[in-house]
Amino acid sequence: MSTLSPSSVVSPPAAIPLGEVLPWAIFAGLMLVLAVYFVGAEEGATSIFSGSYVHEFVHDGRHLLGFPCH
Amino acid sequence: MTGKLLLRGMIAGVAGGLLAFLFARVWGEPLVDFAIAVEERAAAAAGEAAEPELVSRATQAGLGLLTGLVVYGAALGGILALAFGIVYGRFSRLAARPLAALIGAFGFVAVIAAPALKYPANPPAVGSPETIGIRTEVYFVMMAVSVLVLIAAVALARHYWARLGAWNATIAGGVAFVVVIAAVMLLLPAINEVPEDFSAVVLWRFRIASLGIQAIIWTTQALLFGFLAERLFASATPRAARLGAA
Predict the structure, then answer these.
(1) Is the dihedral of CA B223, B224, B230, B233 positive or negative?
(2) Which of A4, A5, A32, A50 to mutate to test the interface with B (most CBs of B within 10 A)?
(3) Nearest CA in chain B to A34
(4) Angle value at C-alpha A27, between A25 and A32, nearest 5 degrees
(5) Is residue A70 a part of any domain in this protein?
(6) Within a domain: A67
(7) B71, A28: Cβ pair inside 8 Å?
């Protein structure tokens, strides 16, 4: 007779296969890091676009998030 | 599954960015305004012409701030979800909610807290424009090193988990992190560009407000993402398997 209730059976969570997670991690990861770059550093030390519109637009957020701004 | 996790992470991050925006409006913006006034007075005293306003202050403090925080939150939430997707069930047996909370806490320490101790946030008027290159460089170096050291410290704790026990292995990992980070901080150049007469009170409040904004973003995204991921896993479990287990 089994006395194990479902809640007492702890099965370790199943990992997502690396083949599925790695392409996402690399491509989406790059895009997301680029997004952080635009908020945190574009048109400061380095520029992808010329001018300073991006810098000025996110200016307050950049200061308040703790990135070096100008 | 990874795509679904990523979407949920980014949603959680956007929620964190929105909450942080409310906080930043109330506790951050008055300090930015104060610092900009100081900056303009200093420029006027030096006889410099006023800078043309490319983006109005209202936009900077409104739509610009909102955009910055939401994009930043979405990006961090996405990165949190990707890290979670790699660690879940592979390097950790924790369930979704506690694992998301743990990754969020570790992430906050490595990405925000440790770099902020060495290179804290600065309001406008603090920091000379000539050094923006080196300041940006060392800030991101500090951040990258701190993330790597944290991963190494976790690996160290896991290595000694069985031999020392969970408690002592965790302490060993924590001590290793603190010691290595302290050495890194000692090696990286110090940057102190606060003008002599800048209000210490404003500077302190600005730095605390900056940490508050980050704490809101990281806490919200980690807790909300954990909740969403757990619900996703529950709904993804085949119905037959659930009935079979019961």
Answers:
(1) negative
(2) A32
(3) B75
(4) 85
(5) yes
(6) yes
(7) no
In a domain, A31, yes or no: no
Domain range holding A70?
A: 40-70
pTM summary value: 0.91
* Contacts with B81 (C-beta within 8 Å, 6 or more apart), sequence order: B5, B6, B8, B9, B10, B12, B225, B229
Q: Cβ separation of B2 and A25 shorter than 8 Å?
A: yes
Q: What six digits make up the tokens of B74?
A: 């979405």
CB atoms within 10 A of CB B203: 20
* Backbone phi and psi for residue A46, each to the nearest 5 degrees, phi listed first: -135, 155
Separation of first and last alpha carbons in chain A: 72
In chain B the first and final C-alpha atoms are separated, in Å, by 25
Inter-chain residue contact B64 with A64, CB threshold 8 Å: no
pLDDT in tens, B42-76: 888 888 877 778 999 999 999 999 999 999 999 99
Q: Which of A12, A18, A32 sits opposite B93 (nearest CB)?
A: A12
